[in-house]
Amino acid sequence: MNRDGLSRTRTYAAGALALLAFATACGDNGGGGAAAPAASTAASSAAGPAGGGTPTAAATTPGAAPAQGDAAAWAKWNLKPLAPAPAPPADKPIKLERTGTVPVFSDVKTTDKVVFITIDDGAEKDPKFVEMLTDLKVPISMFLTKDIVKNDYGYFKPLQALGNHIQNHTVTHPVMSKLSADKQKSEVCEDQAALTQQYGTAPLLFRPPFGDGANTPTLNSSVQQCGPRAIVLWRESMQIHDMQYQAGDKKLKSGDIILAHFRGPKELKGATMTQMFADLLARIQEQGFSVARLEDYVQAPAS
Ligand SMILES: [Zn+2]
């Protein structure tokens, strides 16, 4: 085998390994083991409207914040309402510049007791999730990958119409640090072009698949050339029923950014997107946080 073939094989293998690690990390935390008992309770209680008993629960708690769905909506999904998010800060903790190096962040400096939910890729397109977000009005940011969403760009439009932003997550979901500068640039720029055309607004934020290459000058330069003005990572990663925490104490902190994915029963060991999301909200609720909109804490460059 010549050098070229070998290095190509290596590159491919590294990519495949990264993908495998990604899938495995997901399965490990959500499946068997310690997480399972709590998880199955949460999952069954989060089964959604089919659970029954919806109308009676609704009458008791009037006056929930309109921005986050009313009490009946939370009851419909068998969830306790999240505390309403505070008004967005007038002075944004993260201020983006029009030119130059883009910042890389995985949380937002704030004393507000809020966390931010980001949902990636776009594979699962479950109509029930649109219904759920329409009911609950929990803000999310969507980092979409062109090749994964192009078979149904329309799915994400009602989610966008709720006020949620669409952000950049490459064309093919590669391991960016394995690519040349030119290839990196086309991954970011072509996703930027497609999402801008489809959703009518240019993504301000970029997330590299697997978080890979986030702190390299090459990726920073590629992002700069395509339009996004920040690289966004995360502090927690939602699995099936619970989050994987980077912090040793396994607790949410104010301003944490949470990574989740548009995933369905095949990736979630039989759980649905709405069950996964209900479990995520339950984990946030029981730690006393509300969910704010990431873009409300980020100031776009002055035009
Ligand atoms: Zn991804």
Structure in words:
This protein is an alpha/beta fold and 303 residues long. It is 36% helix and 14% strand. It has helices at residues 3-30, 36-45, 54-58, 71-76, 127-136, 146-149, 157-161, 181-199, 217-224, 273-286, and strands spanning 94-95, 104-105, 114-121, 141-144, 165-168, 205-206, 230-232, 236-238, 243-245, 257-261, 290-292, 298-299. Strands 3, 4, 5, 8, 9, 10 and 11 form a 7-stranded mixed beta sheet that branches. It has a 3-stranded parallel beta sheet with strand order 2-7-6, with no helix packed on it. α2 crosses α10. It is globular, with a radius of gyration of 19 Å. The model is unreliable at 1-66 (pLDDT under 50). It binds zinc ion. Zinc ion (ZN) binds at residues 120-121, 169, 173, 209.
Give structural attributes:
single chain; about 300 residues; alpha/beta; seven-stranded mixed beta sheet; three-stranded parallel beta sheet; binds zinc ion
Shape: globular
Ends distance: 53 Å
Helix-strand category? alpha/beta
Number of distinct helices: 10
What's the structural blueprint in terms of helices and strands?
Blueprint: H1 3-30, H2 36-45, H3 54-58, H4 71-76, E1 94-95, E2 104-105, E3 114-121, H5 127-136, E4 141-144, H6 146-149, H7 157-161, E5 165-168, H8 181-199, E6 205-206, H9 217-224, E7 230-232, E8 236-238, E9 243-245, E10 257-261, H10 273-286, E11 290-292, E12 298-299
Parallel strand pairs: 1-12, 2-7, 3-4, 3-10, 3-11, 4-5, 6-7, 8-10
Antiparallel strand pairs: 8-9
Helix pairs in contact: 2-10, 8-9
The structure holds zinc ion (ZN).
